[in-house]
Amino acid sequence: MTLKFAELPDHEGFVAPVLPNGEPAPSASAFTKTFVGYQAACSCGWTDRRRFPATPEGSKEAEYRWWSRHAPPLLAAAPPSWLVTKSNLLCEQIVSLAAERPLAALTLLSQIESWQRTLLDQAVSRARETGASWAEVGEAMGVSKQAAHERFRAHVST
Ligand SMILES: [Zn+2]
After folding, report:
1. Angle ∠(80,45,70) on CA atoms, nearest 5
2. Which domain of life is it from (predicted)?
3. Residues 8-27: pLDDT tens digits?
4. How far, in Å, is the centroid of ligand 1 from the Cα of 152?
5. Which of 7, 16, 40, 131 holds its CA 20 to 30 A away from the CA of 108?
6. How many CA atoms lie within 13 A of 128 on its CB side?
7. How far is CA 94 from CA 22, 27, 84, 98, 155, in A?
């Protein structure tokens, strides 16, 4: 059984049987003759450190670790899929506009650039106010902790 959220397309959780050598099996469906316990894992490479007994209850507990430990911080940083769809559509429409009426596309892109900068500063401020670390801010933006801090420290009070 795989564990999944639509907002997290790159993360498929599974319960990995722990092999006698102490290593988790590479996938839930990996052939394992004997196993000594269960451990939560994810297609992204994450593995839970905690082991559970090789029982149906142990499997359920391991499964719950993916839902309760791995997914929540990822979901917090994942935009709603309907909004991602809208954003992608807007991008495609601007690409078409730029091909047909480049000056109109420039006007629109300049408008977007001005509000995008303001919104970015506001979102970073709000993330910091609500307890996000610079590492989390960087990760959400796909940059390093240092890059995020250097770029926004002057605009953000904390
Ligand atoms: Zn994952």
Report:
1. 50
2. Bacteria
3. 888 999 998 888 888 877 76
4. 28
5. 7
6. 17
7. 53, 42, 15, 6, 29
Q: For residue 67, how far is its CA from the centre of ligand 1 (angstroms)?
A: 10
* Four-point Cα dihedral 116, 74, 31, 39, nearest 10: 160
Report CA(115)–ligand 1 centroid distance (Å).
Answer: 32
pLDDT per residue as tens digits for the range 89-107: 999 999 999 999 999 999 9
Say how many Å lie between the CA of residue 145 and the centre of ligand 1: 20
Confidence of residue 152 (pLDDT cuts 50, 70, 90): very high
| Cα 8 to ligand 1 centroid, rounded to whole Å | 8
CA of 154 to the centre of ligand 1 (A): 33
Residue 3: name the closest of 33, 42, 44 by CA.
42
Distance from residue 111's CA to the centre of ligand 1 (Å): 36
Listed residues 76, 102, 127: the one ending a domain: 76
Do 110 and 139 lie in one domain? The reply is yes
85 shares a domain with 72: no
Between the CA of 127 and the centroid of ligand 1 the distance, in Å, is 22
